[in-house]
Amino acid sequence: MGSRENILLISNRITAALAGKVADQLGVVVTEMVCKQFADGETYHAFPCDVSGKDVVLLAATPDDSAHQELLDLIAGCRYWNAGSVNVVIPYLGYSTMERAKPESGEIPKGITRTRQIFRTRPDYVAFVDLHSEAVLHAHAGEIRTRHIWTEQLAVEKIRQIQLENYVLVSPDYGFSKRVSRLAGLLNCPHTAANKDRYDVDHTIVGQLSSAVKGRTAIICDDMIRTGGSMLQTVDRCYEAGAVDVLVMATHLVLASKARERFQKRGISCIIGADTYPDRQSDDLLDIYSVAPLIAGELVHYLRLK
Q1: Is the domain of 209 the same as that of 284?
Q2: Domain interval for residue 42
Q3: DSSP string across 231-290
């Protein structure tokens, strides 16, 4: 059995808010790194206490290159100072949609190559939340324990709180339809999927949708909203197929560029999502639930905490 007294919970800077919530759930405090910026732009990091023999938990979303590099530095630092174990939880994995390269394209599949960089720093355990593709789980030689944490139960609870009647779940593409079907099974409601084709980095075409949405409230579900392009096309297809109202739900709310404005202009009044992407809080458009209880529960189980 593990001991909470032996845990050091540390986050990269961009994930500090979520780390505080996880710490509250675990009944521990966040260990804040000593962090300074040199005049030339380099970053100084130091542990504020002895990590030798400690079970270090690193909570770090990697939405940009700086956050990714900080995670690598933290893992390497734990190894350098002889941490007892290094356990990583990544709420949002950057480049996660780039898990493969088209033949002859010369593309770098950064979803895989970046995850390999994390694995090569030799953490003992790495958990991801709602991955776009599970291919990244296998980007190591088998010496690291990996875990895919699903937020399905949290999503189900959130939908039930809305207290809708006569609704249908909609996947914006067939690739995500298995996940949506599991949600529908838990909610005992119907589901359907649109047909999406990607023709450029940030451009997709969403085709026809079935009449299963006719006369119902459609809840479009996806793992992330980046620019909102395919999601908004799915909104249009839902209304064309006879939906009376449309709600939007995704775990990772990236909302790049002017995505918020585009949803509001299309008449979407609420986007439901998690706090996996940094700085996402409930406001007049976003309805945010926290994954902190889910992450804390996973850590209690994995670390066998008393």
Answers
A1: yes
A2: 4-150+293-303
A3: HHHHHHHHHHTT-SEEEEEEEEE---TTHHHHHHHTT---EEEES-STT----SSEEEE-
102-116, 117-131, 170-184, 268-282: which has the minimum mean pLDDT? 170-184
Q: What is the CATH number of the domain that holds 86?
A: 3.40.50.2020
Q: Quote the CA–CA distance of 124 and 140 in Å, as a whole number.
A: 12
Same domain, 248 and 298: no
Beta bridge partners of residue 146, listed in sequence order: 126
Model-level pTM? 0.92
Q: Are residues 164 and 89 in the same domain?
A: no
* pLDDT at position 140: 87
Burial 278-300 (b: 16+ CB within 10 A, else e): bebeeeebbbbbbbbebbbebbe
Nearest to 284 by CA among 268, 295, 296, 297: 268
Question: Is 270 found in the same domain as 172?
Answer: yes
Q: For 248-306, how does the pLDDT look when each residue is reduced to its tens digit (9 = 90+)?
A: 999 999 999 899 999 999 889 899 999 999 999 999 999 999 999 999 999 999 998 87
Going by C-alpha positions, the residue among 291, 275, 303 that lies closest to residue 25 is 291
Contacts with 42 (C-beta within 8 Å, 6 or more apart), sequence order: none
If asked whether residues 162 and 183 sit together in one domain, one would say: yes
What does the block give as tokens for 122? 């030799």
Q: Residue 149: enclosing H or E segment and its boundaries?
A: strand 145-149
Residue type, 118: I
Q: What is the pLDDT of residue 90?
A: 98
> What are the helix (H) ranges across 121-204?
152-162, 177-187
pLDDT 10s digits, 138-159: 888 788 999 999 999 999 999 9
As for how many domains the chain has, the answer is: 2
Task: With a cut of 60, say whether residue 1 has pLDDT above it.
Answer: no
Q: Tell me the β-bridge partners of 86.
A: 56
Residues 51 and 161 in one domain: no
